[in-house]
């Protein structure tokens, strides 16, 4: 009967631990990146019993109760939820973000709640540990916006046009042709085309009435002749470095007489509704400041600037494991490696790693209905173990009462 009490006690202890695991899972149902765990149960050692007190009549081995052998982590992916914060990241598939704490130790997490600190380094919002990426050589490195907070200006080198040069006209003028100089300043040029002979046009580029360059273009059957479809000038505003500027008429530029029959143009046989020649694009830009940062699906830092430009930084470093036996939960939504040989490092979208989702976080994978079902089982087991102790105690009391008589 004393053995029965000890067995009941082992049940109480085991189910109490199970209740603790369930309570922890349930409490973290809204914790980003949390992975639920379950307690592993086993029976304790067995010993031979003696029903009659002699060597004869033994009834075989009997168990000595319940034991627990640790917890098992469930790494099933949780739901990905939108947050609206571009630096909230989630891994869709296998992989964990790599963090480095103040002591230089690496940790891993599925909770990608990051921010740039005052030093411009990407860190974990929860504890300030650095989020690790990979530099061009593949080595682990910080992810930072230092040195990239501004985008330098770029002088225009190519200006494109689109539309129709009216064949029946003698001059065609395009105003407000925007270009950028070598210092990032903006200029509005005027481009004037003058017919010099059949299908031949001279091109004069001016700023504020002062010519800054000239050239010629040639049309054939309403389209520019490729060899004569571009005009190159040296654009040198006062006090600025000279820049070779190409005026490109080779694409989307035609020369038909408006509203006249034209059997060579089947898509518009009467040349009606032709759009007059106009400025299309230019490839220069002014200086700009950093306006935002996010990560693409491959985990590459993408920085955007006020001048419409973008640049890329380091790529996020991810880690994944072969077996959950190589992973240990350490709190703070983080995990440690207990067996480096079972871990692999890499980047999103490669070698079995999932893709990175910007503006999203992975929430807890706790299944509340399963936890409540397990809670009922733990409660019933605890009650049964308690009843065993109560019954054994009553039997002992009965035995003492019999002895007293």
Automatic annotation (TrEMBL):
Keyword annotations from UniProtKB, A to Z: Bacterial flagellum, Cell projection, Cilium, Flagellum
UniProt superkingdom: Bacteria
Residue ranges annotated for the Flagellar basal body rod protein N-terminal domain, each copy included: 5-35
Primary subcellular site in the record, as a coarse category: other
Reported function: A flexible structure which links the flagellar filament to the drive apparatus in the basal body.
NCBIfam families hit by this protein: FlgEFG_subfam
Family the UniProt entry places it in: Belongs to the flagella basal body rod proteins family.
PANTHER family hit by this protein: FLAGELLAR HOOK PROTEIN FLGE (PTHR30435:SF1), FLAGELLAR PROTEIN (PTHR30435)
Protein name according to UniProt: Flagellar hook protein FlgE
Organism (species): Undibacterium umbellatum
Biological classification of the source: Bacteria, Pseudomonadati, Pseudomonadota, Betaproteobacteria, Burkholderiales
């Amino acid at each position: 009967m004393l053995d029965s009490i000890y067995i009941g006690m082992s049940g109480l202890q085991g189910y109490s631990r199970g209740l603790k695991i369930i309570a922890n899972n349930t409490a973290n149902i809204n914790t980003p990146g949390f992975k639920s765990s379950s307690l592993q149960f086993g029976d304790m050692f067995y010993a031979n019993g003696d029903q009659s007190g002699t060597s004869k009549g033994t009834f075989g081995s009997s168990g000595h109760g319940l034991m627990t052998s640790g917890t098992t982590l469930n790494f099933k992916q949780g739901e990905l939820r939108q947050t609206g914060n571009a630096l909230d990241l989630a891994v869709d598939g296998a992989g964990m973000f790599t963090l480095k704490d103040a002591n230089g130790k690496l940790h891993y997490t599925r909770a990608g709640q990051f921010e740039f600190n005052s030093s411009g380094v990407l860190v974990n919002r929860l504890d300030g540990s650095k989020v690790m990426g990979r530099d061009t050589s593949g080595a682990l490195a910080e992810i930072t916006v230092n040195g990239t907070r501004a985008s330098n200006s770029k002088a225009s080198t190519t200006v494109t046009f689109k539309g129709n040069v009216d064949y029946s006209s003698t001059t065609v003028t395009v105003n407000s042709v925007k270009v950028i100089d070598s210092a990032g300043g903006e200029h509005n040029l005027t481009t004037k085309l003058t017919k010099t002979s059949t299908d031949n046009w001279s091109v004069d580029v001016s700023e504020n009435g002062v010519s800054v360059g000239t050239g010629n273009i040639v049309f054939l059957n309403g389209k520019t002749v490729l060899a004569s479809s571009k005009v190159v000038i040296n654009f040198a505003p006062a006090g600025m470095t000279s820049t070779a500027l190409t005026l490109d008429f080779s694409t989307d530029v035609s020369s038909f007489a408006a509203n006249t029959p034209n059997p060579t143009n089947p898509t518009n046989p009467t040349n009606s509704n032709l759009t007059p020649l106009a400025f299309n694009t230019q490839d220069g830009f002014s200086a700009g400041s950093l306006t935002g940062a996010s990560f693409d699906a491959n985990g590459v830092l993408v920085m955007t600037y006020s001048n419409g430009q973008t640049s890329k930084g380091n790529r996020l470093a991810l880690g994944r494991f072969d077996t959950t036996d190589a992973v240990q939960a350490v709190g703070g939504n983080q995990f440690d490696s207990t067996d480096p040989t079972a871990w692999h490092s890499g980047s999103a979208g490669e070698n079995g790693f999932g893709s990175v989702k910007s503006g999203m976080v992975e929430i807890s994978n706790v299944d509340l209905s399963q936890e409540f079902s397990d809670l009922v089982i733990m409660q019933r087991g605890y009650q049964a173990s308690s009843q065993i102790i109560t019954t054994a105690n009553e039997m002992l009391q009965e035995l003492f009462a019999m002895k007293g008589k």
